[in-house]
Specification:
By secondary structure, this protein is α/β, with parallel strands linked by helices. It has two domains: about 160 residues, Rossmann fold (3-Layer(aba) Sandwich); about 200 residues, Glycogen Phosphorylase B (Rossmann fold, 3-Layer(aba) Sandwich). Helices cover about 40% and strands about 15% of the residues. The strands form three sheets. An eight-stranded mixed sheet has the order 3-4-2-1-5-6-7-8, with helices on both faces. A hairpin with a 5-residue loop joins strand 3 and strand 4. The longest helix is centred in the C-terminal third of the chain and has 44 residues. It is elongated, with a radius of gyration of 23 Å. The two termini are about 45 Å apart.
Length: about 400
């Protein structure tokens, strides 16, 4: 089967790009022919690091919509699988393809714009059980396939060495007794869907009792990298945070921070903190656990679902979009979770191994075998059946035409 993948180019350091880099070569290895319709930053059609054709986006910032049908036709694609927010996929374009979108549902119910976009898809793919339930409630016979990580990239390593290396980069020694908390959230909306305000407010209360603790935030400080983020220095100042540091900004903006360094970061941490209002999946939550690091997340949707070792925090639901709600995590609950983690640090070798083992289901090899390969087989079967039906319909029209001609 000829599969066109619609998403972010695999060489970029975003969650969607990460999935392109993992899934497209794995789908080729499963016996299919793959090409990528690049949604951003692909000014020339080129071959990527996996030997897969990346078709150009064409002129203008159109998120891959402008050239999709031309590339789809040129490639002679049998189907289109998208790994991108469905609401930016233009229905009048995508309805002309056999479209199987991964659907990111970070609210309850799904937002009207997501629901509207799915009207032209062949069949959606839910990447969380939360999303699968909501798609079924909306009347869709959806597939289920979680997002994936590479456990050869994210896994436990010597923790002492990891803390030494991370300490060199952030310019602060991480002594064995230093309580070190990590966040990894893109700063790209205002107010932020990642809810930095809740994290920083909780951290200010926590560090007042534990002045040697340190919070590292892996993100853009200014909010300008994605144009619409928050100035996090102002957010930190609002809540009076003192012991907080950020990713090396040049390296972050240049997209040169490798997975090997992120793995060291997760290994160095005592806890991974995530306070988002909603997530379609939440890749960093799983990456951290793969490195043996427990997590604290809001008790909602995919975030709670993917918390295999750590704590979930309650909150209140809030209508962030007409017709759909997300969670505003309770700051006091986050402070309590930080206190609990501080007292009960799950970072001995046994706890690390247990944490890492609990997310092995999300390794790309396991995801392909259990979920993606069967989905591809079923898609191929559906397409073949559809083509047989089309041939019968054409043949039937020909027979009727011939009969009418004979009768006259």
């Amino acid at each position: 089967m000829r599969v066109m993948w619609h998403g972010i180019n695999g060489q970029y350091k975003t969650g969607y790009a990460n999935q392109t880099a993992l899934f497209t070569p794995a789908i080729e290895d499963a016996g299919h022919v793959v090409a990528i319709n690049s949604a951003i930053y692909q000014y020339n059609t080129a071959i990527d690091q996996n030997g897969i054709v990346n078709y150009a986006t064409g002129p203008g910032a159109t998120m891959g919509n402008r050239m999709l049908l031309s590339h789809y036709s040129m490639f002679k694609a049998d189907c289109l699988i998208s790994m991108l927010d469905t609401f930016i996929c233009q229905p009048d374009v995508f309805e002309k393809t056999n479209w199987y979108p991964f659907v990111m549902i970070d609210s309850e119910p799904m937002t009207p714009d997501v629901r509207e976009s799915l009207k032209v898809c062949s069949r959606p793919i839910a990447c969380s059980r939360h999303g699968l339930r909501l798609l079924h409630d909306a009347g869709y016979d959806a597939f289920y396939c979680p997002l994936a990580i590479d456990t050869q990239a994210f896994h436990p390593v010597d923790r002492s060495s990891a803390r030494t290396e991370i300490g060199k980069v952030i310019g602060r020694e991480l002594a064995p007794e230093t309580y070190f908390v990590v966040m990894n959230s893109a700063n790209m909306s205002r107010p932020s869907r990642k809810n930095f305000a809740a994290a920083f407010s909780a951290w200010a209360a926590f560090e007042a009792e534990h002045p040697s603790a340190l919070l590292y935030v892996h993100t853009d400080i200014t909010g300008t990298m994605f144009k619409d983020g928050e100035n996090l220095l102002e957010v930190a100042a609002l809540y009076g945070c003192k012991n907080i540091t950020f990713a090396p900004q040049y390296d972050y903006w240049s997209c040169v921070i490798p997975d090997t360094w992120m793995n060291l970061l997760y290994n160095a941490a005592d806890l991974f903190l995530h306070t988002a209002r909603g997530e379609g999946f939440g890749l960093p939550i799983v990456e951290a656990q793969a490195a043996g690091c427990p997590v604290v997340v809001p008790n909602f949707g995919a975030m709670a679902e993917n918390c295999k070792r750590g704590m979930t925090c309650e909150g209140r639901m809030w209508m962030h979009y007409p017709g759909a709600e997300q969670i505003l995590v309770d700051v006091d609950e986050v402070v309590s979770a930080l206190e609990w983690s501080f007292v009960n640090r799950m970072r001995d070798n046994g706890a690390i191994a247990i944490t890492a083992d609990r997310v092995q289901e999300f390794d790309i090899r396991n995801v392909m075998e259990k979920y993606m390969k069967p989905i591809l087989t079923e898609i191929e079967s559906e397409i073949k059946q559809e083509r047989r039906n089309e041939k019968r319909e054409v043949a039937g029209q020909t027979d009727v035409s011939a009969f009418a001609h004979t009768s006259t």
